[in-house]
Structures are given as structure tokens and as C-alpha cells.
Amino acid sequence: MDLKEYLKQKCQLVDQALERYLPDAKELPASLHSAMRYSVFAGGKRVRPVLMLAACEAVGGSADAVMPAACAMEMIHTYSLIHDDLPAMDNDDFRRGNPTNHKVYGEATAILAGDALLTEAFILLSNGTGGDPAARLRVIQEIAVASGSRGMVGGQVVDMESEGRHDVDIATLSYIHTHKTGALIRASVRCGAILGGASEEQFKSLTRYADAIGLAFQIADDILDVEGTTEELGKDAGSDQARGKATYPALMGLEASKARAHELVEIALDALASFDERAEPLRAIASYIVKRKS
Amino acid sequence: MDLKEYLKQKCQLVDQALERYLPDAKELPASLHSAMRYSVFAGGKRVRPVLMLAACEAVGGSADAVMPAACAMEMIHTYSLIHDDLPAMDNDDFRRGNPTNHKVYGEATAILAGDALLTEAFILLSNGTGGDPAARLRVIQEIAVASGSRGMVGGQVVDMESEGRHDVDIATLSYIHTHKTGALIRASVRCGAILGGASEEQFKSLTRYADAIGLAFQIADDILDVEGTTEELGKDAGSDQARGKATYPALMGLEASKARAHELVEIALDALASFDERAEPLRAIASYIVKRKS
């Protein structure tokens, strides 16, 4: 299959849906709604929504059933980036080559735009009457748990507390990754499965797939930070090292990290063994993780 | 009825439930969970949960059905206070006589504790299997809309943008209040009604009640800032004026503000005219708003 074309098509669908779901930039308070849209449409690769769509497809579900949840996930991912970039956190001036939210709208509005995007996700998840209410509650639960103190936010706290420390071990690094980035990836795949009507067996297999690619994705990111160029990445290459951040290459070496990433991709593909050709996009995404350059 | 005793009992129930629902302070990341608990248990009056319980009671519902949503509402209220107090926002060092969250835990953890409390609210609202799923989705929708860019966060942005300006009119001040504080009060009462099984008629009356007391509460707050003492308020009296904040007393005079607050309490009581004695707590709360000293 042509993954590039698949990703392009799905990204367009997600972008169109986000355009519809988000309040208009002119709606009052315009500063807030502009700030929300600024970061949502700042060139994100829509990894999580595409994973949700692909997981839903893999079990025979329709894209329509999953689009609100897919966009909610992207809003949560975006809010987390806005807050991570704040002066009190990572203090980043640029993201994907563009000025960060607080550099454009000011710190207060950036905090509130993040808050509003997180909230908007739950507005979207609970909106309207489509779909089985019990399944929708389960999806809200998945996404909320993955985003909260036992998920993404917890990972961000441990990441922050680990920065500049030289005693960070693999267990802590693994905690950071499974929580900070892994939790939303897992929830994306699982929600796609739930809304696509997956069997219990399929749900478990897809969870295994998600956990493997989530970690592979993060290790690949760490490797890219070492090997990529600033131009390719749209951010400073080598920034992890400059910050004294614990990374897989730093803790287990570059070659062992690459081997681990490849191994995880194999685990992900293995988890999909019993799925038919409708899981091809998920397979292609797993393989792509260790090949990408940015 | 003895409102003081009623409030005390309900506050205790809410506190016990919050204690159960929130992750333990020792659970990792401990800094995050401690920070979340610090602000939740910093002496809040539990106005919103009590209103939800009382509204549920007024239509014959049980406290059990509404406690998770009541606690979720308090978590959202608490997150909003933590973020409002941040240096980039109101830059407050004290709240209710205690150091604010970022003064104790640092700015980064305070931002994340706020994020996690907002998320925890939706974990709680979507948790377990109790109750009719469709009603629970409706409650999530109510609370999310009230908290988001068209509700509380929107009000906070306009409030922030109005600070220090001398051209703030009654329409803008009313926007700020109906959004920044009114939206959560309205949602509290409405969710109590939904979960208590209110009729459409009762739901409309309770909405009218909520809108009236929400605004009365805010006008009374503005009046207290002028007339109260720092000791009574647990914060600096006259702080609104010192900041150049638009208030009802500043815009329409102290006496007219008092008259308006009393008028709104009458409207609230009138909205409850067709309710039986189970609405006594709601009636007593409305009357109390214009009598309180802090």
C-alpha cells in the first residue's frame, strides 16, 4: 500500500473535521479561539487521529464513527504541546518551525487556550446523540485516563523532574515514555477499536500493537534527535542532549536503541497477525516509524 | 431549615467523596498528586457540589447518583483557581489565607496539577457503569460546555483583557460573570436536575434559579470586596479596586448593586415556586447569598 498517500488523505479528513469542530477564530473571545486554532493548525502530523482511524478500519468500522474522537485526541495532544512549551515548563520559542503559542498570544492566553482545547475535546466526545452511549462513555474514560495524572500529565511531571539529573535509569525513562507519549497512542488505537466494534480478542491485540509502536516511536524520536538535522526536524537537533535529557541512545547506546526499535516494530506486526488486509495501514505505520526522517 | 447545618453535612459528604476519588498523595508522581490534593482541600466552600446535591434533592433524586459529578465539578472549579492564580494570570500569592499552589509546588507543577484536575473530572464523570449512559453523556456535555471557551475559560479571557481598562461596560461585565462563574453554577444545578430525574419543566425552572443566583453571587462578591474586611474574606479587601477591575459597585454604584442582588434572589425564589419542601435548601442558599460576610 501507498502509506504516504493514505496519510495524506486521512490528514486532510482530520483537518477538515477539526476545522468544522473548532469554534471560529472570530467568535468571542477571538484571542482565545485564534490561539486554539493557531496551535491545532500548526502543521501537526495527526499521528494519533490517523492511528484511531486506522484501528477502527482494521476491525471493519467506519471513519465517520470515529472522527469526533480522533479530533478530540488531536486537541488533547495540541493542548499538551502548548503547555509543555510554556516558559515555566520547557520554555520553547519554536515548534515545527513556528513560534510557540505563548510567543504569539502571550503566556496567559496560551495557558487558557490549552485549557480550552482539553475541555473542547470532552465537549466533542460527549456531543450529539450518535453511537451507543455506553461505548462513548468507555471512549471518554479511555481518553481521560490516558491524559491525566496516571497517564500523559504524570509522564510530563516525571520527565520534568528527571531533566538534568544523571541518575535516570531505564525504568524511569520507560515510565516517562509509556506515560507522556505512549498513553495517548494506546488510547487512540483502543478508541478506534471500541468505536469500530472490535471483539475482545481484537481489542487486546490492538492494545499490544499500540504499546509496541508507542515505545518504538519514542525511541525513534530519541534516535532522530541524535542523527537528524535541524532542517529535517524543524527544531534544534541534539536538543535533548543539550538539555541533559535522558534518552534511549544516551542510556543504552545508539545501536542497541535502533535494535530495540526494530524489535518493537516486529512485536507490533506480530500482534496484527490474525488481522486481514484492512490492517495494512496499521502495518505500514509500524514499519514507517523506524524509517522516518522527521 | 438550618442552612448552616445542611451546608456542613453536605460539605463533609463532598470532602469524604473527594478524598476517595482523588489519587493518593503518595502515588507517583507524588508531587503532582500532592499538588492536586493541596488545592482541592484548601478550604473551599463546595458551593457548586452542594448546589448540585440540593438541585438533585429538589427533584427527588438521591445524593449517591450525583456525588461523582458533584466532585468532578469541584475539581474543575479548583483547577480554574490554580491556573487563575499563576504569575502569568492574576499572580496571587494567597488564596483563602493559604499560599497558592504555584507558591508551594512551583509554577510547572501547578500548571500540570490544574491540567490533571480538569482531566480527573472527566475520568470521574465517565467512570464505572452506574446510571443511565445517555444521562451521563448529557451531564458530561453540560459540564464540558460550561467549562470551555464558550463558558468559564472564555469568561476568564475577557476578564483578563478587561483588567485595567476604563471602558468596561455593564454588558462586558455581565459577559464575564455569566461565563467565568455563572456557567459552572448553572451547570451544577442543571446536572443535579438531570441526574435527579427532573421533568423538562423542572429543568427549565432550575436553570432560571441557577442563572439568577449565579449573578447574585457575583454581585454579592463584588460588594463584599468593597465592604468586607481582609480578615473576613481571607484575601485582601478592596483588591478589585486596587487592580482596576470592573465591578458592579464601580459601574452602577453600591446601593444599586445591593438592590440588584436582592432582586435576583427574588427571581431565584420565584423560579422555585412550584417546588415542594424538598427545594428548601435551594431556597435557603439563595437567601444566604446576599447575607453572607465571606
UniProtKB/TrEMBL annotation, chains A, B:
Any one Gene Ontology molecular-function term assigned to this protein's record: prenyltransferase activity
Residues passing through the membrane, by range: none
PROSITE patterns: POLYPRENYL_SYNTHASE_1, POLYPRENYL_SYNTHASE_2
Residues annotated as signal peptide: none
GO cellular component terms given for this protein: cytoplasm
Keyword Magnesium attributed: yes
Biological process according to GO: terpenoid biosynthetic process
Keywords associated with the record: Isoprene biosynthesis, Magnesium, Metal-binding, Transferase
Keyword Metal-binding: yes
SUPFAM superfamilies reported in the protein's UniProt record: Terpenoid synthases (SSF48576)
Co-factor requirement: Mg(2+)
Pfam entry (one): polyprenyl_synt
InterPro entries: Isoprenoid_synthase_dom_sf (IPR008949), Polyprenyl_synt (IPR000092), Polyprenyl_synt_CS (IPR033749), Prenyl_diphosphate_synthase (IPR053378)
Family from the record: Belongs to the FPP/GGPP synthase family.
Protein name: Farnesyl-diphosphate synthase
Organism from which the protein derives: Geomonas paludis
Lineage: Bacteria, Pseudomonadati, Thermodesulfobacteriota, Desulfuromonadia, Geobacterales
